């Protein structure tokens, strides 16, 4: 396994881990708001750090990631960008409000983030 492929697998595991944190945060949103916030913030931190790491590695080290489908990669990037923008607003509204907007963004963010993760599985040659 090349270092690039290993890095991609690490990124996949982290993003699916962030997805698990978002699901856990959603499940405790009413029963434990403090835990909801901590889980959501941790998931968002993993996404932000992961994205930064991928960008730094791809551009800074000039690594070539094994791509299975250039078309799916472009779709992955567009969907991931949309998910990231919604996540930024979710984090902001979760911390500062308005709560109503925060609650309404979840049904938009969740499918975008799931689609981002699934598309990455097919866009990159992971196996």
Largest sheet: none
Low-confidence stretches: none
> Percent range for helical residues?
over 70%
Q: Write the element-wise H/E pattern from the N-terminal end onward.
A: HHHH
What's the gyration radius in Å? 15 Å
Number of helices: 4
Based on Cα principal axes, name the global outline: elongated
Subunit arrangement of the protein: single chain
Task: Tell me the layout of helices and strands.
Elements (H helix, E strand, L loop, with lengths): L2 H25 L5 H28 L9 H27 L2 H25 L4
Helix pairs in contact: 1-2, 1-4, 2-3, 3-4
A few lines on this structure:
The chain is mostly helical and 127 residues long.
Notes on the structure:
The protein has 127 residues and is an all-alpha fold. It has a single domain (3-123), classed as Four Helix Bundle (Hemerythrin (Met), subunit A). 83% of the residues lie in helices and 0% in strands. It is built from four helices and no strands. It has helices spanning 3-27, 33-60, 70-96, 99-123. Helix 1 packs antiparallel against helix 2 (33-60), helix 2 packs antiparallel against helix 3 (70-96) and helix 3 (70-96) packs antiparallel against helix 4. The longest helix is centred in the middle third of the chain and has 28 residues, at 33-60. The radius of gyration is 15 Å and the shape is elongated.
